[in-house]
Amino acid sequence: MNTTQAIRHSFEEARDTLAAFLADPAHLASVEAFADHAHRTVTSGGMLMSCGNGGSMCDAMHFAEEWTGRFRGDRRAIPAVAFSDPSHLTCIANDFGYDQVFAREVEAYGKGDQDLLVAISTSGNSPNVLRAVEAAKKIGVRTVGLLGKGGGELRDLVDLAVVVPNATTSDRIQEVHIKVLHIVIEAVERKLFPEQYAAQ
User: Fold this and answer.
1) Domains and CATH numbers, the chain
2) 9 annotated as belonging to a binding site for a ligand
3) What pLDDT is stored for residue 1 in this prediction?
4) pLDDT beneath 70, residues of the chain
5) Which of 79, 141, 148, 168 has the fewest CB atoms within 10 Å around its CB?
6) How far apart are alpha carbons 128 and 154 in whole angstroms?
């Protein structure tokens, strides 16, 4: 396979992964349920929290900044935080171990079921994400998992699992994850700020 063929193959693989996601109504229902959870958090004055490792941390950060900054148009800032500050992470890892880096922050920021933790893991088995969800459940924080590869251990641990089907590599899974995050934000904005979407 030459470079041109490889590039085309990658685009087609990405397209097929998204098509497989769209083909199952259960996946669309899970995204709608995710949007409902996020809407409830925002309207109840809760905190949107997100975590993940590597590229999934980047997605967690992207998710948070769209709320505190803006998505498509100007509107009030919405409370959201991604657990990504290096000083926090290294402090907790040094004192409690890397498996606890997100769990400690859930304990710090989470108050109860008005809050939402978005736990992102392409394998569904990241130990520090698992510990974060366990910490959330102890204090009543609702949890959504963005997962891949069948969902792993997190699938049965989170309150709502959004699992990318078919894809076996993290890049293809993450490409669907970021679409889900953007679409959830849009769905919530359409309810809260309908004037921004009046012409669409």
Assistant:
1) 3-197 (3.40.50.10490)
2) no
3) 83
4) 200
5) 168
6) 11
